[in-house]
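Possible regression after last week's pipeline update?

I re-ran a chain I had predicted before the update to compare outputs. Posting the input and the new output here so someone can diff against the archived version. Not blocking, just want to make sure nothing changed silently.
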Amino acid sequence: MSALAALCATAVVATPQAEAGPRRIVSGWIPYWTTAASVQSLQANADLFSDVSPFWHSSTSETAVTDQETSADRGTVIAAARAAGIPVVPAVTDGTGAGYMAAVMADPGRRAVLVGTLVNLVMGRGYDGIDLDYEGFAFRDGKASWPATRPNWVQFVAQLGAELRARGKLLFATIPPTYDSAQAAGSGYWVYDYAGIAPHVNRVRIMAYDYSVSAAGPIAPYDWVKRIAAYAVTQVPSGKVVLGVPTYGRDWVTATAGTCPPSADLARRSYTATQAWQSAAARGAPVAWDAALRERTFTYAESFADGATACTVTRRAYFSDAQAVIERARLVDTYLLGGVAFWTVGGEDAGQWNLLRILAADPWDPRVAPVEQVQAFVAQVYRDVLGREADPGGLQGWVAALRAGQVSRSGLVRAFEYSPEGMSRRAAALYSEILGRGPDPGGLANWTAALSSGSVRVMDARAGFWASPERVARSGSLQQWVRDMYAGVLGREPDPGGLAGWTQAAATAGPGAVAGGIVWSLESRQRLVAAAYVQFLKRGPDPGGLAGWSAFLGSSDLPVLDAALGGSDEYYLRAQPR
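New output (post-update):
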């Protein structure tokens, strides 16, 4: 079963209730060189953070860990996190040379010493755990060492995890990506053995970025990121997987015309997302959205001269802005991940936070959901409310309105329900269902206008059709009319007492009073709620939903009920292609 199908199977519809805060799906690293900006970002968005990892420490041997932060900065970060109830799990990198840490892993005695060093760091500083960021195996040691290092790495993680768990502390592992289980040239960094370490860590953070480093290209192309996430959840319980997401960019020289002087700056440049926007603006470079990569990019030219030589270079930049972040954060719900971790916190596009808050509160909010999902939802509303396929202009317009936040999902369903087209269909159905004929043009126009304006409720219109002289005459007698109402409204034969009582009431108070009483009865409302469930959710109501919505309908109207069901997550998920 796909993740979407699993969510659809468990989605429920309930009566209106107070909204909870957003899910805490965000983590990230606070570099020691951006403490002030990072703390400001953390404090402003603390409601989204599940934990935070200051980027502070480096293992320089099995017995030593260096501090890269100042004690003042350390106190500032810890105080800010503690005040917001956010666990502090600092990162420790591998600061040794090629092969050193692999040798430590291979020696049981040295490995135990390293475990003790890291546990003492956590306990001595009062941290909530440690984040292992040992990248040397991947980027220094060479692939020939991986078969030997892989099991030793797992043993080390198991030992460290056991020691930290015994003390109520957390262990995270931040590792480069692996793509499959083949342990072949194209398998990624399989030395880190996802499945082997999974039982011993609280989080596996996957560095789904740095796709392009030495040569121009995307930072984290979307299909590559999806491939990383899809494989990870086959090896690690999905709730433990945290997807590393970039909030930075780079640019490179891609072409040179002329001869550049020695002073020309031809090096690769790195930016935070904020700096990337500023760089593009300063150079007047249009920023484009690459729909395939789901990243921002821009191109610009620079000229250099020293009197003897001159050149013009073309540079190409790629960076991850708010929209790129959201595209990747959606994968949390696609694959039921534990969250996302930002490299880094503090330089990101500030626009990402409100979008993340929307996503964390409701992953299917049209403002942040994939456009294909929103299109499928609108198309299904056309079918279920208007009984037809969407016209291209209408589909495009409503999708745009949903994406812009100009209308909610339930608001869209309500707009369709109360549209002249929607209410014309309802009025025509009343003519057919109750009077047994098609509508006359004048009557249809009048009922459509009254219903679409809201001046007449659909429930009252139902009662009005039943109480009309035409419908009473069609039954032949008041007693038969009561029988017909029971059959048409309640779906059953009347009990003797009900038949006698309602027939007498019709004779004395008139058919209008009887029609209103039966149409607005609890039994009638329950049948209408059940029918609405079938129309929108393709199932019968659960007992709680039946009771809650039947009571709701007693003081509301059918289109409002339909808008609530049609705006639900369950309906939204049912609308998606399987």
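Follow-up from reviewer: compared with the archived run. Residues 198 and 236 are 6 Å apart (CA to CA). Marking as no regression found.
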